[in-house]
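Usage

Read records sequentially. Each one opens with the input sequence:
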Amino acid sequence: MKCPYCENEDSKVIDSRHTEDGRAIRRRRECEKCGRRFTTYEKIEEMILMVIKKDGSRQAFDRNKLLNGIIRACEKRPVSIAEMEKIVDDIERGLNNTMEKEVDSKLIGELVMEKLKDIDEVAYVRFASVYRQFTDVNTFVKEVESLLDRKRKG
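and closes with the structure output:
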């Protein structure tokens, strides 16, 4: 590992610890030439997941983009950022576990709605209204009615 200060390639590991989520290892290193210390992180290299958009174009999966959409849907709702991040983590893990290299954006939207439906119904309807591109009040009312039917049955 190259020292960020003197660019010497010899360093020794002083301490290793797992990160809080256990998905990486944090290593404290000391340069054998200049003696300065620095931190490195080691994590599993994940394959790039491509998202197929509605128009057929493809772009790399971006967990921050997904999280921002969920944050907007949950604005002023009693949903913690930890719960929102867990939704993103669960969806990302599930998608990676399929071992598919490409996934339809529609599937991602459906997964988000399924998670939000159980956490906060208002956030669910907000997300659904943007995701499904509600064009009028009737579409909005139908979605709320289906949510109420689900509650009555459940």
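Summary fields computed downstream for this record:
- The first helix runs from residue 63 to 73.
- The beta strands are 11-18, 24-31, 37-43, 50-52, 58-60, 102-104.
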